[in-house]
Amino acid sequence: MPMLPLEGVSLYCDTAGDGTPVLLLHGLGSSGRDWELVKPRLAARHRVLIPDARGHGRSETPPGKYGVPLFARDIAALCDALSLRRVHVVGLSMGGMMGLQLAVDRPELVRSLVIINSGPEVKARTLRRKFDFALRLVVLWLLGPMRMAKILAPRLFPKPEQEDLRQRVLDTLGHNDPDAYRRATRGLLGWSVLERIKDVTCPVLVLHSERDYTPLAEKQAYVDLLPDARLQVLSDSGHAAPLDQPERLAEVVEAFLRDVETAAQATRGVG
Question: Which segments constitute the AB hydrolase-1 domain (predicted)?
């Protein structure tokens, strides 16, 4: 590729390996670099595709409103352009939202789903969440992406030995186009597919990091609504698990994909 022209936008997409396709979707204000430490292991057995969402990384930054449904439509269009039919989807944070949106909008496309530190809605249901959302928008509007990066970096990677990971946040999130980052952030607020996830029939693995922003109970609550889902905890990990626990994350994802594919083969054998 690596730039793929689609309707209304060209997306940058890194690829590696051969086999069953696996999409790795990044978080808000980041890029496919989220997956650099995970890609080599997954690419040993799979065709790994790592797109940058519109307005992020090396993809184009068209004008207009952004949001999860639009990001997900872009990814579906990318899959269609590459003639991908049944794809394992792995999403971190905003990428997990995109994965859930894909699963409800294009169920025939999603073979399985791994949701990492994410959920089916971004709604401020408490005063604390309303304050957090408002503060993030104010910081972005008044101070820009670099100031936001300096606030988030020590929260994401609090350990003294994680200085290189904190610097990575500054290099990636801090250098976002300010307007695109604001539009992407606003586009998440109020988003929800909570009432539709009961219709997600593909196998789902939800991963929760011990130090994630949202509690385990919130993830368990929506896992209970999914027909075929399980929840697993990543110990000694924060929100950005592909960076602070890449080996463990790759191991867990690999095992899940192997289970999904083995179950599918067994079903075909019975048929």
Answer: 22-252
